[in-house]
Amino acid sequence: MKLVVFDVDGTLVDSQAHISKAMRLSFERHGLPAPEISQVRSIIGLSLLEAIQKIVPEGSKTLYKKLIDTYVECFISLRESPGYEPSPLFYGIRDLLDRLSISGTYLLGIATGKGRRGLDYIIESHCLGDYFSTIQTADNHPSKPHPSMLYSTLDETGVFSKDAVIIGDTSYDMDMGEAAKFHRIGVSWGYHSSKIMRPKSDFYVSSPAEIDGILKSIWNDT
Prior knowledge:
Elements: E1 2-6, H1 16-29, H2 37-43, H3 48-55, H4 61-79, H5 93-101, E2 106-111, H6 116-125, E3 134-136, H7 148-157, E4 164-168, H8 171-180, E5 183-187, H9 194-197, E6 203-205, H10 211-218
Parallel strand pairs: 1-2, 1-4, 2-3, 4-5, 5-6
């Protein structure tokens, strides 16, 4: 079996609007200027502490904790507000997951900077629970690009790194994959630019429909 590990934000779901809004509310509540959308896009994929440290590098531990706690509160409040819609799956993702999961060739996994609570909401909202054999979140691992999450996907599935691939939209995903000796597929529909992603990816795709063929070519499948 081959292991295909997906990032979540920017790869499976388009979550930038909700993340940006919760981040803005958190910063404003503490009297800080709200980060630009470009700043928020650049840190999506990191664990919350590392993300906020990049936005406010001169902050204190106390400030970081306040911003993190408030961000989580704001995100939950947004999720519970009337008319809230979960972050949508990118076009073609569900079809890709369906194809890979019934192929008999691939085990699927997740490696995300989200906490487990937020990930569970996404999984339940889109009925994704049956697809994944291994799920790794920021709750139990160092932030990307540390390879800890990918090492755990190998431990849980019994697959070797040469038979595994990471699919993601940020340089953090690709650097994590390189550290863990995974094959790396970068996607164009996420939050880091092609200028950043192409040099770090073994393959770079503009549509989920391209991924099946690339997986076959990696392992010379027919």
